[in-house]
Amino acid sequence: MRKRRWMPEQDQVPCIWILDEEWPDYELERQIFARALPWCDVVHSRPADYERDVPAYGRRAVALLTQIDVGMTEERIAQLPCCRIISNYGTGIDNIDTAAAMARQILVTGVSGYCAAEIAQYVLSAIREWGRPLHLYEQATRSGIWGLAAVQAVRASSPRELFLVGFGRIGQAVAARARTSGMIVSAWSPSLTPARAEACGARYKELSDGLASADVVSLHLRYEASTHHFIRAEQLRQMKETAILINTARGGIVDTAALLQAVRRQEIAGAVLDVLEQEPPRPDDPVLHTPGIIVTPHIAYYSPRAVHELRRRAAEHIVQALQETGKERFS
Fold first, then answer.
1. What is the mean pLDDT of the chain?
2. Is 2 a catalytic site residue?
3. Would you say the pTM of this structure is higher than 0.85?
C-alpha cells in the first residue's frame, strides 16, 4: 500500500473540521483540541454547507468530527486528502463509507456504550408503559370510566420475558435493569455463547426460540449491511400475538412495511420505536398513525451526562489519533 502523506500544503494550517449542527455550541470540543492540539485550527460547518466549505477546509482537514446522519461517501472522503480520522458523534458508523476510508488509511471511530444506562432506562420505561399504560387510564378517567371498569376498558399486559437481540454493552445494561424488575431475560447475538450470556445475567436462546417465547423483543444490534431489515416478516411471524417489539438501535434493522402489516393484522401486539428508517418521518408517515405503534424522536440515548460523554470521547478519539501520528508529520 502506498504510504500516505498527512500534511497539507506548506502555506496551509492543519485543521480539525467539525461538520455538525446538533449542539448549541462546540466549546467543549474546542477546549479539548486547544489543550492537546494547539497547532491545529478548529473550524465548523453545518452539514448543509459542506459543498460550500469543502474548498476552504477539505485540503487542510487532518480530522473530521461529524454526526451519524451526515453521509460521508467515497466522493466526499476523496476531498479530504490529509484526513487521518473521521470521528462520529454516535455508536454507529454506517453513515461513513468505511471501505473508502480504509483505502485511504483513514481511521473511522464511533463512541460505544456512552448511553447504555439511558437506553436501558428507556427500554424498561417502555415495558412499564405497555404493561400499565397510564396515559390510557387517564383518558378513561376523563371519559367517566372509573375503578375496575377502566382496567377492563384498557388493554394492558404484564410482560414477563424479555429477549434481547444484540448483547453488547447496551444489551447487557438492559438485561441488568430488567432482572432487577423481576423479568426473565434471554439474549442472542451472532457471536454470543451460552457461557458468556450466563456470565452477563441472561439465558442464551437461539434467535427463533427467543422470538417465539418473549413478551418483549428489544433490538440492540449494530446496523450494517448484514443487519439491514434483520427483523422482517419472517421474524415477526415467529413472535407471539401478545408480544411487542422495541427498537432503540437503528431504523434500518426493521422492515417497517412488514412491521406495519404485522401490527395491523394483530400478528404482534405493537411496537415502541425510537428510531425509524426515515428520520425525521413525514407527517403523513403511516408509522405515526398506526394504532399499537409508539414513536419517540430518537431520544433514548439522551441525558446531559450521556451527551457530555459522547462529545468528550468523540473529540478525544481525534486527539489520540493525531498525537499518535505526531505533530511533525503535519508541520
1. 92
2. no
3. yes
